[in-house]
């Protein structure tokens, strides 16, 4: 840890010396290092350090040792700020956000623990056991179990935590009731989660064999709807709307090109790493659904956009994640929602009306539709989109208007 880290934020030698010699000077030094590494601007970092110093002074004055700091301490400090008369500190109430960041840093450094004011609600024992079983028996990802868990929690709240008392009628009623208040995709995920949960219970001998068959299949006609897409000129407008002179613009342009030219999913982009790119081979490795890996060609247009972002857009941090937040704290996107937000902003800038929900997936649909209208076979499109079944790709045939006109027959005379 650099002994001069506080010097990056404070000019006065006396001020720096006072901070270091205070009751928790080493903690402020390490906090300053974290703020610097995660890209906080000097003005903002200085504000957070002053708030952390104020917290240290206040807790020291009230004989609260560092190891006993917790959420309750933070709540009391927040109340204190509204009527603060501490010497050498502003009487205006600053944001408590800086103090929370400081406590989070101490927790990450394992100096303190942060129990909640209210004890956290623990998952039911059956759900915890199910997650462990899925990890052990099926190698399920955390993402999959995260999607399954809400449905299982709700089932256990409704039916209780005694599997021996589960009945087919009540299970079916639960799924049917759920499906009435949500879309097809949510209903399908609910049925899938509960079916898998019941198979776990059967394997553990906690409920009757065959009870998983009580979960109804959610009806869905794959080709009943039309894919929503943008015409090529609108896709071009989206990409052109990015400000190539700014870091955010370079990043967003690279993301949009990956969506529009390679047909990546939002989740694919969130998990891309620098090590996934093979510059010599001009290819990029993508980890898609079901943790299936595929290596895709990196076109010159996409490659140049990524290079522009890496040279003059990506924050200089020690992380392998390709796309990073452009505002502190510099870190990876927390979820695929951030990618949809990138597309949403581009749609607004370009003045293009979004034809459906799921902004990021819209560009994937647009690529498939454009390829089909240019004469690409469905098999090739399925390969590009990494579809396991050609049936998934066949929905795009419904938007190939020229081909449909050729096969349409005049109505026979009666």
Note the topology.
Blueprint: H1 13-20, H2 25-37, H3 42-61, H4 71-81, H5 97-108, H6 125-138, H7 142-159, H8 168-180, H9 184-203, H10 232-240, H11 247-262, H12 266-270, E1 277-278, E2 283-287, E3 293-297, H13 300-312, H14 337-350, H15 359-373, H16 378-385, H17 390-393, H18 401-407
Antiparallel strand pairs: 1-2, 2-3
Helix pairs in contact: 2-3, 3-5, 7-9, 8-9, 10-11, 10-14, 11-13, 11-15
Describe the protein's architecture and organization.
The chain has helices at residues 13-20, 25-37, 42-61, 71-81, 97-108, 125-138, 142-159, 168-180, 184-203, 232-240, 247-262, 266-270, 300-312, 337-350, 359-373, 378-385, 390-393, 401-407; strands at residues 277-278, 283-287, 293-297. The protein is an all-alpha fold. The chain folds into three domains: 5-108, no CATH class; 125-214, DNA polymerase, domain 1, CATH 1.10.150; 232-404, Orthogonal Bundle (hpI Integrase, Chain A). The protein is flat and about 70 Å long. The model is unreliable at 116-120 and 404-408 (pLDDT under 50).
Give a brief rundown of this model.
The chain is mostly helical and 414 residues long. It is 53% helix and 3% strand. The protein has 3 domains: 5-108, no CATH class; 125-214, DNA polymerase, domain 1, CATH 1.10.150; 232-404, hpI Integrase, Chain A (Orthogonal Bundle), CATH 1.10.443.10.
